[in-house]
């Protein structure tokens, strides 16, 4: 950032200097314009009898010309050429000498080269700022997770013992009549079977355990309202005998009066009982389920040998039985309840710790690109001023020659071919003379000439009029 600030400060100083120079150039230009206008006014005052010279004035920049900035051109005031007076032509005579007439004069055309300034464009360089990218590192927060232990309550089981009534069967004896058999023997043909073995699949039983829910009765407590008696005390008035005599006083006759066996009231507290209801716990039984394992048998098949019998006959004594009845005792089972303690499990909660992940953030550095502005140079076209010379046709005003002077003057040459030399030669030879006269309606200029009689031959033609309509030159310099 420090080099950039230095560059900004330098540009600010340069712009300040350029602004001061421009202000000074404007002040100098205004002073020069005012001075040139004063010179023109003085020249017009001196040559009041001549007309105003009008030409093609081109603005020129102040010296020195700065190609970096376009400079406004001030009006160019060029010096008027002062040619020598033309020779007097004696071919034209005035018959009325004693009469004073205004001198009409005549105009002549002349080609002059006039300085001008042409605006051109030349290549230059301009400082610009172009974007560029700079690698930077910026901090960012990256979301992460950290492990934390959280206190939780986990279920646990506690073994307790509960009393319950177990229904059992107790033995008892009962007298019954049972049949009895008396053995006898009978001769009979008894079909017999001869044993033999056969391979077969015999069923077998495998013991398995199945979980079953068994309904049990567990004790519980229920709040009930039971009657009770509460002793309370209440006040009561009773009569109590007062022993002895009590003097009551005398009457007007002097008799004395006494009282015997008097009673008085006494406040005593008597006890009473009222019926109230109080809350107590009553043991009840509620149905619950208990998971038990029950033995079961599953049938399977295994290979084995089966004894078969082949039919046969054999004479034998057959045993027979004859039924008789006799009294005996039979053991039976009667139901009975037995109080036992049964193990049970109660669910409790114990503190524990659980590993959890909580969100967190971590500071990291991330690569990024930042746009910056770097100085650079750009090729541009800047305006400049080139000095050129252009041909201009101007008209010069000449007063009429004095007709009384019959001598001829040689035409002086000022370095260019004047058109009026041929005209003067033709006039001396007696040929037709071409005069550029203005109309007689404008009498302001001849009157100005009359203001200085006798000095007509010595007046230098300083007033020039530019022909702006007919004599414009089409000449152009080649563009550099």
UniProtKB/TrEMBL annotation:
Superkingdom of source: Eukaryota
Annotated segments matching region Disordered: 404-432, 437-456
Secretion signal, residue range per the UniProt entry: 1-23
RNA-binding found in the keyword field: no
Keyword tags: Signal
InterPro entries found in the cross-reference section: DUF4816
Biased composition (Basic and acidic residues): 404-421
Name this polypeptide is given: Uncharacterized protein
Organism name: Culex quinquefasciatus
Gene (UniProt): 6031819
């Amino acid at each position: 950032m420090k080099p950039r600030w230095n560059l900004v400060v330098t540009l600010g100083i340069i712009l300040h200097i350029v602004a001061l120079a421009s202000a000074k150039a404007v002040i100098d230009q205004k002073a020069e314009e005012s001075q040139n206008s004063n010179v023109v006014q003085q020249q017009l005052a001196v040559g009041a009898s001549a007309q105003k010279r009008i030409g093609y004035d081109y603005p020129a920049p102040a010296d020195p010309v700065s190609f970096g900035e376009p400079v406004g051109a001030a009006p160019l005031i060029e010096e008027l050429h002062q040619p020598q007076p033309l020779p007097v032509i004696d071919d034209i005579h005035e018959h009325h000498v004693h009469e004073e007439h205004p001198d009409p004069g005549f105009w002549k055309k002349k080609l002059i080269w006039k300085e001008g300034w042409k605006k051109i464009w030349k290549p230059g360089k301009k400082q610009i700022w172009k974007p560029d990218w700079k690698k930077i590192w910026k901090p960012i927060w990256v979301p992460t997770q950290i492990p934390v232990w959280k206190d939780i309550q986990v279920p646990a089981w506690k073994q307790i013992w509960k009393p319950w009534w177990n229904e059992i069967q107790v033995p008892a004896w009962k007298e019954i009549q049972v049949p009895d058999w008396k053995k006898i023997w009978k001769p009979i043909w008894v079909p017999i079977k001869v044993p033999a073995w056969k391979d077969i699949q015999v069923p077998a039983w495998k013991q398995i355990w199945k979980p079953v829910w068994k309904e049990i009765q567990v004790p519980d407590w229920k709040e009930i309202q039971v009657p009770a008696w509460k002793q309370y005390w209440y006040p009561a008035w009773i009569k109590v005998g007062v022993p002895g005599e009590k003097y009551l006083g005398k009457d007007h006759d002097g008799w004395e009066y006494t009282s015997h066996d008097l009673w008085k009231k006494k406040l005593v507290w008597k006890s009473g009982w009222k019926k109230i209801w109080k809350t107590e716990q009553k043991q009840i039984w509620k149905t619950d389920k208990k998971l038990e394992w029950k033995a079961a048998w599953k049938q399977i098949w295994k290979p084995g040998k089966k004894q078969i019998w082949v039919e046969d006959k054999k004479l034998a004594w057959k045993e027979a039985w004859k039924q008789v009845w006799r009294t005996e005792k039979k053991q039976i089972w009667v139901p009975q309840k037995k109080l036992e303690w049964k193990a049970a499990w109660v669910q409790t909660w114990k503190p524990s710790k659980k590993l959890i992940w909580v969100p967190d953030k971590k500071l990291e550095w991330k690569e990024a690109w930042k746009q910056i502005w770097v100085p650079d140079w750009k090729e541009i076209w800047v305006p400049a001023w080139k000095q050129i010379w252009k041909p201009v046709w101007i008209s010069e005003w000449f007063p009429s020659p004095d007709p009384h002077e019959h001598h001829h003057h040689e035409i002086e040459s000022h370095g260019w071919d004047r058109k009026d030399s041929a005209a003067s030669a033709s006039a001396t030879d007696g040929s037709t003379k071409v005069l550029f006269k203005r109309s007689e309606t404008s009498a302001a200029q001849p009157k100005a000439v009359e203001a200085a009689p006798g000095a007509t031959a010595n007046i230098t033609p300083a007033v020039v009029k530019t022909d702006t309509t007919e004599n414009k030159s089409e000449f152009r310099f080649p563009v550099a």
